[in-house]
């Protein structure tokens, strides 16, 4: 029996099962089985396989990587060529783009790599239409732009989300607040710091036993679902921010545009007429959460033209040094920082000081 047939069987059983307290345990087990089968689909066991898709993965350059995901013929290539000035083949038929086309834009001093991925089709997560490679490249992005056609229904949004979810990509979500630690002995130690609406000790044990884990510490620090627990146990999930880009707004009325603006995480644009690109770039910048640090040589004015760009959450002085050169941290005596992260300007700080956007730094060597 093929993996796809097994998945279909489990999905049918889940659809037949009523959701209530009595069946929660059984549903949790089915969800865990489903997650395991999905993982086998993504990474087939053994064998050399057919090798990676030719020309798919692109070397990472710049400070951040943004991928365009969408169905064929929604205007991804037009968007890339108008944003980055890179020519990605554009034509009026579907599947014009067959491999990844990279482009780079400079925005607020940061180099952002844009990837135009081939269109995905329904069933991409099961390996249809090169979907597996497309979504694998999408996993490496810092931000995903889901490009949708305004004229086509919002069902497409759901379909693409479903494809990406099936591949372990979680859009606009935070990792669940669950502590999970495997042990050698001692059974399953289950603690919940707040009331759980879905999981209890029994369900947690059965989900873990499906993964052949019989000794572990599990701490639930918020009200979580069985899916969240499975995500943590699988451990291969990536949490990526996402913007829905609604293209082709030149073909709808103003009233419809007002409705569209109310959808969360959404930017309406027209790639062909280059409408509303500044709004899109601004939103991309907000979601990427990059931090710009300006450098100041001793006795000179700060260099405001080329900042050092650091990702959010890794903005200490140490990270800044490592970004420039790994030997720099060994020679560092202290740093002088001007900006919003310090109490007075300039302030003498050590390597653990966390900087904020548009700070100015001067390094003093030993």
How would you describe what is shown here?
The protein is α/β, with parallel strands linked by helices. Helix content is 31%, strand content 24%. The chain is built from eleven helices and 16 strands. Strands 2-3-1-4-10-11 form a six-stranded mixed β-sheet, sandwiched between helices. A five-stranded mixed β-sheet has the order 13-12-16-14-15. α1 runs antiparallel to α2 (21-42) and α6 (201-210) runs parallel beside α7 (226-234). It is globular, with a radius of gyration of 24 Å. The protein starts with a helix and ends with a strand. Mean pLDDT is 78; it is low at 47-53.
The H/E string reads HHEHEEHEHEEEHEHEEHEHEEHHEEE
In the sheet with the most strands, the strands line up as 2-3-1-4-10-11
What's the shape? globular
| Beta-strand fraction estimate | 15-25%
Structural class: alpha/beta
Number of helices: 11
> How many angstroms does the end-to-end distance come to?
67 Å
Poorly predicted spans: 47-53
Helix content: 25-40%
Note the main sheet.
6 strands, mixed
Number of strands: 16
What average pLDDT do the residues reach? 78
Radius of gyration: 24 Å
Pfam family, one: MMR_HSR1
InterPro entries: Beta-grasp_dom_sf, DRG, G_OBG, GTP-bd, GTP-binding_2, GTP1-OBG_CS, P-loop_NTPase, Small_GTP-bd
Domain TGS: 289-365
Keywords: GTP-binding, Nucleotide-binding
């Amino acid at each position: 029996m093929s993996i796809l047939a097994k998945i279909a069987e489990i999905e049918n059983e889940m659809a037949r099962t009523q959701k209530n307290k009595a069946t929660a345990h059984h549903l949790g087990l089915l969800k865990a089985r489903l997650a395991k089968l999905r993982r086998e689909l993504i990474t087939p066991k053994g064998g050399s396989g057919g090798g990676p898709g030719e020309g798919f993965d692109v070397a990472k350059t710049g400070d951040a990587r943004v991928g365009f995901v969408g169905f064929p013929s929604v205007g991804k290539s037009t968007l890339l060529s108008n944003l980055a000035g890179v020519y990605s083949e554009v034509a009026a038929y579907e599947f014009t783009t067959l491999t990844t086309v990279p482009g780079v834009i400079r925005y607020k001093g940061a180099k952002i790599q844009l990837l135009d991925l081939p269109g995905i089709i329904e069933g991409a997560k099961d390996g249809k239409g090169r979907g597996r490679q497309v979504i694998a490249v999408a996993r490496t992005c810092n931000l995903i732009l889901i490009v949708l056609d305004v004229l086509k229904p919002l069902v497409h949004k759901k379909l693409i989300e479903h494809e990406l979810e099936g591949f372990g990509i979680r859009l606009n979500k935070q990792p669940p607040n669950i502590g999970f630690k495997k042990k050698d002995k001692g059974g399953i130690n289950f603690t919940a710091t707040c009331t759980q609406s879905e999981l209890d000790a029994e369900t947690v044990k059965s989900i873990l036993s499906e993964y052949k884990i019989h000794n572990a510490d599990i701490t639930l620090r918020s009200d979580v679902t069985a899916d969240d627990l499975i995500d943590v146990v699988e451990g291969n999930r990536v949490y990526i921010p996402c913007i829905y880009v609604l293209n082709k707004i030149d073909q709808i009325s103003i009233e419809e545009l007002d409705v569209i603006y109310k959808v969360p995480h959404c930017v309406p644009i027209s790639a062909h007429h280059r409408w509303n690109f500044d709004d899109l770039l601004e939103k991309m910048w907000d979601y990427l959460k990059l931090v710009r640090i300006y450098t100041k040589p001793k006795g000179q004015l700060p260099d405001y033209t080329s900042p050092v760009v650091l990702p959010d959450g890794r903005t200490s002085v140490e990270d800044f040094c490592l970004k420039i050169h790994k030997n720099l941290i060994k020679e560092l005596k202290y740093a002088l920082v001007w900006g919003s992260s310090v109490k007075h300007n300039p302030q003498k700080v050590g390597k653990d000081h966390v900087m904020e956007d548009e700070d100015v730094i001067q390094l003093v060597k030993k």
